[in-house]
Design goal:
The chain has 127 residues and is an alpha/beta fold. The protein has helices at 2-11, 40-47, 71-80, 94-103, 113-116, 122-126; strands at 17-23, 26-29, 34-39, 54-59, 85-88, 106-110. The longest helix is centred in the first third of the chain and has 10 residues, at 2-11. It is globular, with a radius of gyration of 14 Å.
Length: 127
Amino acid sequence: DPGLVRGAARDFPGRVAVGIDAREGRVAVRGWAEEGGVTALDLARRFEDAGVAAIAFTDIARDGAMGGPNVAATAAMAAAVSVPVIASGGVSSLADLAALRAAGGIAGAIVGRALYEGAFSLREALG
């Protein structure tokens, strides 16, 4: 709901992050069951002037799969917008975090399953 996001970002400046979930570059909505009709990059650009603090970008084909994040798509989004972009989905190793770091421009990463399953520790990830 772009109107809700814009209103929240206006009312809570610097405290609202937008989650953009995509399948093959296209936004996925309604619990990832439907295509939203726009590319993830186009949607990110639409929120660029809304005052959001960050965009969390998830390639849903990789989320929870422990197969590595979509570094190329995340880096492309980060390069195309001025809002910080956070990688989400697929991080399974310290090498994945290193790849995101090496891509440049990516503000951070959301790590879930890899930490839960003990693939590495938070201390190792931050080190």
